[in-house]
Task: structure prediction
Amino acid sequence: MIRAQGFTHLGIAFALTLCAVPSRAAEPSVAWLPPWQGGANNPAIDRGLDFTVKEADNLADFHGDLTNAGLILYVGGNYFFAMAPLVVAFEAKHPELKGRVYYETIPPGLLVRQMRAGGRITVGNMTWTAKPDAYFSGLRAVNRLIDDGDLVGPPTVYATNQLAIMVPKGNPAGVKGLADLGRPDIRLAMPHPDYEGVARQIKAALAKAGGDALVTAVYETKVAGGSTHLTRMHHRQTPVWLMQGKAEAGVTWRSETLFQEQAGLPTERIDIPADLNATGIYAGAVVRGAAHPTEAKLWLEFLLSDEARSIFARYGFGAYRP
Result:
């Protein structure tokens, strides 16, 4: 089993069966499972019975204990790997909240649906309610939710990110840049525009590299032909599909490719030139009617601290400069 150093939580919130990585030259095929959450990202203190079955029962994007939660955060999954150290640092500053932070890291569009459903969500056979105190996504989405009345402005803007191409170790398809993604022989894992806000930045980058024809090829022609697979949560599915051999390239946030490298997983990063890239700006705000607005504001203030910025910097995030 492949396990990340310190963060054994790559995975997706539904079951994966045991798969084999397609053999490479001079290397036998090996059985593997993605490194599921091993508890390092769970801020709960009393965990009771541990019934995490890696192949079948594992909620990788839901963290903490709702029983006595003092702060509930909806965080777009684009920095799921940074949340554990952020929560640890935050709790050190606010010990009254130690073990009382609950957070979710599914895509921001799905978090909006959950928020508007009163915090109600179902995964498999389990249904529960977690009404958010603060919501985090791209600045444009946060401003739109403020205008719609879901969030209370002004937004707190705290980090930036850029795109990169993730490929399996060895780059078997020989991908050199965005233009190659239009090739019919390359299978892609791409974020679904209906669920994942990053798709908007990806389409903008594709348009810079190859115009509307490249956008159409990747997001329409290849989807219809079956060589572009659309994810519902790219931060979990893209690396898994690359390692499974289901795809040979996928565009993600650069921070996620850096995390994979630091974790020692068999993926590689292809950087996108600045003139073809797109920048994501991360923001958050208190949810209107939040049960814990004071605690939510403490978290927003913490995200602007030097300590939080140093944690984001580990994964290539930039500080926001208006």
